[in-house]
C-alpha cells in the first residue's frame, strides 16, 4: 500500500516537472517568436506600439491564456460556460467583419427555414384532428369522387372503425336582404357537429327531430355571416331569415375558428330517407372520426371491403368503383400540395445546410490564425474537449445573433405570406410566428451551432504544440488537412446549388408552359358571374327557362355587350358534374359502349360567346326547346374516343336527365348528337380535356348557372349594368363572383406562382452562398500561396499564368462538385416529374442553362482573387522569406 502511494506521488512529481519544463520552453519560444513578429511589423513600416499591439492580438495575450488555463481546474460547468461566453463575446467583437458575414449568412438560412416552417406546420383547428378522415368514392379511372347517399348510408351502418361517419351536401343559397347575398350553404347529417366535437358559440346544435321531413326549418350561422350580415346581434338566436325564399329560424352561431373545406356560411339539416335514392348522384362529402386505437390502414382496408360489397350488390352503378380514405388535412389541401410543401421545406433546409457550410469554412479559416493560441491553452493544461466547448460557445453566439436577425426577416416574410389568399387553407391555423415556430427557430440555432462549429472546433484542437509554436508566420501546421475539409465543404455547396437551381429551373419552365396553354378560346374581354336560382321559387322548369331567357335578352341589349350566354360550368372549373352515358345500339358489355362525361347545361350562343368553332354539325338554337327532339352536343375528345371511325352526328346517347330539386336522376333519355365542338380546358390548364356533353337549358333547365358576357371594350364597367339587369328580372337574386376570364385563369395558377417564386428565391440564395463560399476558399488559398506567386513572378512568369493557376483550382472544385450535383439533380428531377407540365424531368435546356450559370458564377468568384494575386510585388512578398 505504501509503495503504491509513493509511486503515485513520484508520478505526479514527474508530471509536474514535465509540465513546468514545457511551460518554460513554451514561454521562451513564444516570447522569441513574439519579438520576431514585432520586428517584422516594424520593418514593414508600422510604429513600434502598433507592431506590439498586432503581435499581442495574434497570440491572444499569453499571460491571460496561461491564467485562464490554470484556473480552469475545479471550476463548475456553469462558471466555465459563463467564462467561455464572455471570452466568446470579446472574440466576436474583436472581428466585426468576420462576425457580420457569419451572422448574415446564418440569418438567411434560419430565417428562410423558419418562414417556410410557419407555412408547412399549421395545426388543424379541430379536436384531435389526427383521427379525422375523409372518405371518397374512387371512380374507375382512379380519381376521387363525392359519395352517393345510398353508399354513405351503407358505409355508416356497416363500418366498425368510425365513432361517427357524417356527410355534408354543399350548395349555394340566396340570403334575402338588401342587397341579397349568395352564400355557401351546407346541409349536414345529424352527427356532423358531433364528429368535429364542436358546439355553437351561441344557441344550440340541431336536435334529432329537426332532421325529420316536415319539421320546422332551422339554421346555424357561421360567425362571419353573423358579424358581417347581422352586425353581431346578441339576440340573433330565435330570429328568422330567408334562404332561397323560404323562412328559417336561427338556432345558433358557430365558433369563429370552425370551418369545413371551403367556407360555409349557413348550416341546415339534411334528411336522408332509407330508400328512393340513386347511387348515380354522388354529391356528399363524407368525413369520419376513427375510434380510439384504430389505424388509418385498418380504416382503408375496411372501407375498401365495404365498397367492394356495394359494387357487388349494385353493379349497374358501382361496378369498378371503390373507396378512397385520406388524412383530413391532406384531403383539404388537395392532390400535389403536400408534395410541393415537402419540396419547399426540403429546399430551405438545404439553404440552411449551405449557410452552415459557409460559416464552417469561415471558422476553419479563422482557426488557422488561432492555432498558436489554442496550442498554448492545450500545453498549459486545457483538455481538447475544453477548447472545443469554448469554440462551440463562440459559434453558438454567432448562431443566436443570426437566429435573432433571421427571426426579424421571418416576421416580415410571414406577415406578407399571411396575406396571400392562395395560402389560406380552411380548417388550418393562420400563418404566424407562434410559440412552436419560435421553438423551432431555437432548435435551428442549436443545429447550426453543431453543423457549422463542431468540425472546425475539433479540427482546431488536433495540433502539434511545439511545431505550432516554432512555425513561421506564413506556415500553418495542419493546413493541408483543413484545406481538404474547406474544399470538401465548397464542393458540397456547389453540388447543392446545382440541384436547387435545376429544381427551380424545371419548376419555372413548367409554370411558363402552363401560362402559355391555349384554353381553346380567346379569353380577352370575357366577363363571368354566378347565379343560383332559389329552388322553391324556381322548382318549376318553366320559370327557370323564363328567367334565363329574359335575363339574356336584357343583357344582350346592353350597348357594350357583344354576346351573352349561360352555362353550368366554366373553365377552369373547381367542380365537375360527371354523368354516365351509353351509346345507343351498342352492346352494353363493350368498353366502347359507355363512359362518363362532364354534364353541362348551356344556352344557345354559348360557343359563339366564348369564340369556339363547331367542328361538325350545328349549335343550339331557340328551336331546341321542350317538346322538340332531345339533342346534345359533344366535344372532340368524346367523339375521338367513342366514334373514331364513324360520324357521330345523328347517333344517340342515353344520358340520365338531371332535374333540379330531385336527389336522383331520371331514367336515361335518348339524345341525338347534333354537333361536335372543340375541347375546352374545363378541368384546368394543367389537366387534359375530358369527355363532355352539352345540353340545351331550354330542354333541361338548371338552377345554378354562370353568366358569360363578351364585351366590345373594357369589362369592369359592365358589372353594375349586369347587376341592374338581374335585379330587374328578380330583385331578390344576387349576382356573385363577377370576374374576368383572365382573372379566373390567373387565380387557378396563383398557388404555382407562389411556389415557383419561392423556389427561385431560395435557389438564388443557394447560388450566392455557394459563390461566396468558393470566393472565400479561393481567396484564402491564393493568400497562402503569395510567396509561390511572388517567386513565379520574380522568375519571369506572365500574369496570365498566375490567373490560370488560381482559376484552375476553382474549376477543379467545380468539376467535382458539378458531378456530384448533377447526380443529385437527376434524382430530384425524377421526384419532380409528377409535378411538371410540358417539360421533361431531364430537360436539356434547364440543365444546360444551370451549368452555364454555375460556371459563370465560379469564374466570377475566382477572378477577383486571381487578379489580386497578379498584383503581388515580389520584393515585398519575399523580403522576409
Determine the mean pLDDT: 81
Class based on secondary structure composition and strand pairing = alpha+beta
Rg from C-alpha positions?
A: 37 Å
Task: For the record, give the distance between the C-alpha atoms at the N and C termini, rounded to a whole number.
Answer: 59 Å
| The number of domains | 5
3D shape? elongated
What does this molecule look like?
- The structure is a single chain.
- The chain has 881 residues and is of the alpha+beta class.
- It is built from 27 helices and 23 strands.
- Strand 4 (162-175) and strand 5 (181-188) form a beta hairpin.
- The protein starts with a helix and ends with a helix.
- Mean pLDDT is 81; it is low at 1-5, 9-13, 60-75 and 472-478.
Give a concise summary.
The protein is of the alpha+beta class and 881 residues long.
Describe the structure using short key phrases.
single chain, 881 residues, alpha+beta, 5 domains, 12-stranded mixed beta sheet, 6-stranded mixed β-barrel, 27 helices, 16% strand, elongated, disordered N terminus
Amino acid at each position: 500500500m505504501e509503495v503504491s502511494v509513493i509511486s503515485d506521488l513520484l508520478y505526479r512529481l514527474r508530471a509536474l516537472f514535465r509540465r513546468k519544463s514545457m511551460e518554460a520552453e513554451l514561454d521562451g519560444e513564444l516570447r522569441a517568436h513574439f519579438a520576431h513578429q514585432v520586428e517584422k511589423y516594424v520593418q514593414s513600416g508600422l510604429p513600434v506600439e502598433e507592431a506590439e499591439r498586432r503581435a499581442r492580438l495574434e497570440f491572444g495575450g499569453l499571460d491571460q491564456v496561461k491564467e485562464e488555463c490554470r484556473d480552469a481546474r475545479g471550476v463548475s460547468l456553469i462558471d466555465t460556460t459563463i467564462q467561455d461566453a464572455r471570452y466568446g463575446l470579446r472574440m466576436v467583437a474583436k472581428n466585426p467583419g468576420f462576425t457580420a458575414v457569419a451572422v448574415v449568412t446564418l440569418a438567411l438560412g434560419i430565417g428562410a427555414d423558419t418562414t417556410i416552417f410557419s407555412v408547412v406546420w399549421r395545426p388543424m383547428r379541430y379536436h384531435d384532428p389526427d383521427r379525422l378522415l375523409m372518405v371518397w368514392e374512387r371512380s374507375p379511372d382512379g380519381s376521387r369522387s363525392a359519395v352517393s347517399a345510398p353508399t354513405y348510408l351503407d358505409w355508416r351502418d356497416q363500418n366498425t372503425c368510425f365513432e361517427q361517419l357524417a356527410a355534408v351536401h354543399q350548395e349555394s343559397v340566396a340570403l334575402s336582404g338588401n342587397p341579397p347575398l349568395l352564400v355557401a350553404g351546407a346541409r349536414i347529417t345529424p352527427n356532423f357537429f358531433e364528429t368535429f366535437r364542436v358546439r355553437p358559440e351561441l344557441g344550440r346544435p340541431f336536435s334529432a327531430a329537426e332532421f325529420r321531413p316536415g319539421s320546422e326549418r332551422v339554421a346555424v350561422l357561421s360567425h362571419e355571416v353573423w358579424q358581417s350580415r347581422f352586425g353581431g346581434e346578441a339576440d340573433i338566436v330565435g330570429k328568422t331569415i330567408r334562404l332561397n325564399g323560404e323562412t328559417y329560424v336561427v338556432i345558433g352561431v358557430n365558433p369563429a375558428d370552425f370551418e369545413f373545406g371551403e367556407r360555409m356560411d349557413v348550416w341546415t339539416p339534411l334528411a336522408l330517407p332509407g330508400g328512393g335514392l340513386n347511387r348515380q348522384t354522388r354529391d356528399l362529402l363524407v368525413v369520419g372520426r376513427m375510434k380510439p386505437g384504430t389505424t388509418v390502414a385498418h380504416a382503408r382496408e375496411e372501407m375498401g371491403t365495404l365498397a367492394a360489397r356495394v359494387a357487388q350488390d349494385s353493379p349497374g352503378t358501382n361496378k369498378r368503383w371503390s373507396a378512397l380514405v385520406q388524412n383530413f388535412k391532406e384531403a383539404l389541401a388537395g392532390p400535389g400540395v403536400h408534395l410541393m410543401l415537402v419540396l419547399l421545406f426540403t429546399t430551405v433546409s438545404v439553404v440552411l445546410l449551405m449557410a452552415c457550410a459557409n460559416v464552417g469554412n469561415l471558422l476553419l479559416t479563422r482557426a488557422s490564425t488561432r492555432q498558436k493560441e489554442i496550442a498554448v491553452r492545450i500545453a498549459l493544461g486545457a483538455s481538447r474537449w475544453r477548447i472545443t466547448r469554448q469554440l462551440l460557445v463562440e459559434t453558438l453566439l454567432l448562431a443566436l445573433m443570426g437566429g435573432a436577425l433571421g427571426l426579424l426577416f421571418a416576421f416580415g416574410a410571414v406577415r406578407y405570406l399571411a396575406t396571400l389568399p392562395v395560402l389560406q387553407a380552411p380548417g388550418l391555423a393562420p400563418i404566424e410566428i407562434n410559440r412552436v415556430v419560435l421553438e423551432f427557430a431555437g432548435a435551428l440555432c442549436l443545429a447550426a451551432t453543431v453543423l457549422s462549429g463542431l468540425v472546425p472546433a475539433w479540427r482546431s484542437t488536433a495540433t502539434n504544440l511545439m511545431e505550432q509554436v516554432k512555425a513561421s508566420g506564413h506556415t500553418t501546421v495542419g493546413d493541408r488537412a483543413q484545406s481538404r475539409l474547406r474544399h470538401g465543404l465548397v464542393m458540397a455547396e456547389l453540388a447543392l446549388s446545382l440541384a436547387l437551381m435545376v429544381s427551380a429551373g424545371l419548376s419555372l419552365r413548367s409554370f411558363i408552359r402552363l401560362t402559355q396553354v391555349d384554353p381553346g378560346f380567346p379569353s380577352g374581354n370575357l366577363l363571368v358571374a354566378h347565379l343560383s336560382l332559389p329552388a322553391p321559387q324556381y322548382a318549376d322548369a318553366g320559370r327557370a327557362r323564363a328567367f334565363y331567357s329574359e335575363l339574356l335578352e336584357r343583357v344582350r341589349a346592353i350597348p357594350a355587350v357583344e354576346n351573352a350566354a349561360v352555362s353550368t360550368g366554366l373553365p377552369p372549373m373547381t367542380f365537375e358534374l360527371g354523368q354516365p352515358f351509353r351509346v345507343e345500339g351498342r352492346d352494353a358489355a363493350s368498353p366502347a359502349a359507355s363512359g362518363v362525361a362532364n354534364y353541362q347545361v348551356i344556352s344557345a350562343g354559348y360557343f359563339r360567346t366564348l369564340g369556339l368553332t363547331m367542328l361538325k354539325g350545328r349549335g343550339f338554337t331557340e328551336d331546341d326547346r321542350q317538346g322538340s327532339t332531345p339533342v346534345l352536343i359533344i366535344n372532340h375528345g368524346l367523339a375521338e374516343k367513342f366514334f373514331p371511325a364513324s360520324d357521330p352526328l345523328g347517333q344517340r346517347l342515353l344520358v340520365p336527365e338531371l332535374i333540379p330539386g330531385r336527389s336522383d336522376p331520371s331514367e336515361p333519355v335518348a339524345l341525338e348528337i347534333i354537333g361536335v365542338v372543340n375541347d375546352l380546358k374545363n378541368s384546368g390548364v394543367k389537366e387534359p380535356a375530358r369527355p363532355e356533353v352539352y345540353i340545351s337549358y331550354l330542354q333541361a333547365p338548371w338552377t345554378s348557372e354562370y353568366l358569360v358576357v363578351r364585351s366590345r371594350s373594357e369589362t369592369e364597367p359592365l358589372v353594375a349594368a349586369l347587376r341592374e339587369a338581374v335585379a330587374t328580372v328578380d330583385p331578390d337574386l344576387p349576382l356573385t363572383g363577377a370576374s374576368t376570364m383572365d382573372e379566373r385563369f390567373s387565380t387557378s395558377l396563383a398557388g404555382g406562382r407562389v411556389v415557383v417564386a419561392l423556389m427561385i428565391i431560395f435557389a438564388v440564395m443557394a447560388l450566392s452562398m455557394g459563390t461566396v463560399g468558393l470566393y472565400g476558399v479561393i481567396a484564402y488559398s491564393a493568400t497562402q500561396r503569395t510567396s509561390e506567386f511572388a517567386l513565379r513572378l520574380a522568375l519571369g512568369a506572365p500574369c496570365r499564368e498566375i490567373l490560370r493557376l488560381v482559376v484552375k483550382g476553382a474549376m477543379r472544385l467545380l468539376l467535382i462538385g458539378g458531378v456530384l450535383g448533377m447526380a443529385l439533380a437527376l434524382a430530384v428531377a425524377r421526384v419532380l416529374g409528377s409535378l411538371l407540365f410540358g417539360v421533361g424531368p431531364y430537360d436539356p435546356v434547364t440543365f444546360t442553362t444551370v451549368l452555364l450559370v454555375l460556371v459563370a458564377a465560379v469564374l466570377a468568384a475566382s477572378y477577383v482573387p486571381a487578379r489580386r494575386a497578379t498584383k503581388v510585388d515580389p520584393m515585398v512578398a519575399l523580403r522576409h522569406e
